[in-house]
Amino acid sequence: MTNIAVFASGNGSNAVNLVKAFNAGNRIRVALCLTDRENAPVMEKMRELGIDTLYFPRSVWKEDPKAILDELHARDVKVIALAGFLCFLSEDIVNAYEGRILNIHPSLLPAYGGRGMHGANVHKAVIEAGDTKSGATVHVVTNEIDAGPIVVQKEVDVLPDDTPESLEAKVHEVEYSIFPEAVMKTVASLTPPAMPKSVDDAWAEVLGVPNNVPPQPAAQPAPQPATYSAQPAAQPTMNIAQHITQDAMPPTYLVWSVVMTILCCTVPGIVAIIYSASVSSKFYQGDMEGARRASRNAEIWIIISFVLGVITNTLYIPLSIAGLF
Ligand code: GRF
């Protein structure tokens, strides 16, 4: 179970939506809701849903971020979702949760982002500009307002008879789908899926010896620079599998290993099969070097199997003719 916290200052429809999206399941849980506005409607809604709420005045947000971080750490919060949070977030909090704070913004960032661009101001500006598209964006929070890498973005049409209110309602609808999606992506990037144990690891365990392949570091979101310039709308979204698929998988030689085991020498053939099988598991763990090594070893054991097979058969035939077998 991964705990997340929601920071909100307003109505809290996104905060409520996150609780409904996650808290009935067993993977992600909204554990806490923090606010900078004592009587923000979101607080009552969250309490009704059984979520712990905490209010910190703006002076604490500004001057004592450690008090806030202590609360987050005490509840083992891994990801923070800003859902209509209108208070400036101190650098200490941004840095402590680098790459793990998401903000939802009611426009197609980088358009209509930055200071003063929130809520109704955004929708008014979009309509006054005569834009035919608007939308919502979830991005990673950095120390520059609304400028961190985009995680998910979705468009809505702006129709000629749209008002700021009708546009806001449409944008809210897409927010309810993209915010949970972005949270899930971020949580998934913190905990890579458990991979099947590699053959080398299994053998090392059986033999009671350490496998010399160093453990892979947990996939983390790429560290974000302290400041981040405005990004074009079509940024790539975070994808933890990307690094795996950038290089082609080395050859496994599995077919040759099996052929050598059947036709030539069995024992080295089996060793070749073990190495062949570990090529793909290492590759999908992101251990490119290990995959290449396993591929080379498979090749070597195929050759050994072939050579031993030829030698054995060469000796066996004359000896069997001579009646010794
Ligand atoms: C949303 O439109 C969000 O994009 C912006 O603030 C609004 C919050 O709405 N950051 P709600 O309080 O979740 O209803």
Describe the protein's topology.
Elements: E1 2-7, H1 13-22, E2 28-35, H2 41-48, E3 52-55, H3 58-63, H4 65-74, E4 77-82, H5 91-96, E5 101-105, H6 120-129, E6 133-140, E7 150-157, H7 164-190, H8 199-207, H9 242-245, H10 254-263, H11 266-284, H12 288-321
Parallel strand pairs: 1-2, 1-4, 2-3, 4-5
Antiparallel strand pairs: 5-6, 6-7
Helix pairs in contact: 1-7, 6-7, 10-11, 10-12, 11-12
5-O-phosphono-beta-D-ribofuranosylamine binds at residues 10-14, 83-84, 104-106, 118-119, 136, 172, 175.
Question: How is this structure best described in words?
Answer:
With 325 residues, this protein is an alpha/beta fold. It contains 12 helices and 7 strands. Helix 1 links the parallel strand 1 and strand 2. Helix 1 runs parallel beside helix 7 and helix 10 packs antiparallel against helix 11. It starts with a strand and ends with a helix. About 10% of the residues have low confidence. Bound molecules: 5-O-phosphono-beta-D-ribofuranosylamine. 5-O-phosphono-beta-D-ribofuranosylamine binds next to helix 1, strand 5 and helix 7. The site of 5-O-phosphono-beta-D-ribofuranosylamine (GRF) has 15 residues, from helix 1, strand 5 and helix 7.
